[in-house]
Amino acid sequence: MSSSVAAVGVLVPMWIVAEFPNGVSVSVTLLLVGILGWMIHVARQLATVADLKGIRTRGFLRVRRMAWEEIQEIHAAPNPGAITQDNAPSTIAYAYGKGGRRRLLPYVDDLHVDVVREVRVLNEIWQELRGEDWTADENAAIDIARDQVRRKALAWGVGCSMFSFLPLTGLALLPVFFEFPGWTEPVMNPFVILGGGWVAVFGITAALVHRGNRPAG
């Protein structure tokens, strides 16, 4: 849905507002329609399959397999994309392999399945099939913890910066209604308030969340 809206947002100005040659407009339209059609087709092929050997994930570009014995962790997590997409799942699932490498499990989310139940079942299967001599990779565990903290900090930073848009807009409009001393002009510039404020909210929030959740070691 969001891809379709983005495509329309590009094509409408091209055909109605801007004065592009017909050849360029037609070429760009065919290209965008082709890309959109490919994405819709491939999205229907995405899948997560578990068998006796491991987990196989079919992504947009390739099929990948993770053997049970190399998996270090399987868990559900909040989806950062849900902040900006109304139709996106709020909870998605990941499997972590050797070296803390993270892999998304397509369709194991709260839009398509009972994600808590599915993750619990996958963990039970993993614990049964990973082998009796399986041991956790300590370095991978540290990398996984750090990755989770980084992503949590990023999600909080993006979320708070988006919610700060209206307050920052109100602050940027203050010079229109009130007169401020001349020395405040560089700071009260609307572009400085909106651009710098967004970056500041994102950076400060992400830094505080990262610092408060940083794993030891």
Describe it.
By secondary structure, the protein is an alpha+beta fold. The strands form two sheets. The chain has a three-stranded antiparallel sheet. The N terminus is likely disordered.
Short description:
With 217 residues, the protein is α+β, with helices and mostly antiparallel strands. It has helices spanning 2-17, 22-43, 115-129, 138-163, 165-177, 190-213; strands spanning 47-50, 54-58, 63-67, 73-78, 91-96, 102-109.
SSE blueprint:
Elements: H1 2-17, H2 22-43, E1 47-50, E2 54-58, E3 63-67, E4 73-78, E5 91-96, E6 102-109, H3 115-129, H4 138-163, H5 165-177, H6 190-213
Antiparallel strand pairs: 1-2, 2-3, 4-5, 5-6
Key descriptive features of the protein:
three-stranded antiparallel β-sheet; 217 residues; alpha+beta
- Residues in helices, as a percent range: 40-55%
Tell me the series of helices and strands, N- to C-terminal. HHEEEEEEHHHH
- Termini Cα gap: 43 Å
Rg, Cα atoms, Å: 23 Å
Which term fits the overall shape? extended
The portion of residues forming beta strands comes to 15-25%
Number of helices: 6
Strand line-up of the largest beta sheet: 1-2-3
Largest β-sheet summary: 3 strands, antiparallel
Instruction: Kindly state the number of beta strands.
Output: 6
Structural class computed from helices and strand pairing: alpha+beta
Summarize model confidence as the mean pLDDT. Answer: 77
What low-confidence regions span 5 or more consecutive residues with pLDDT below 50?
1-18
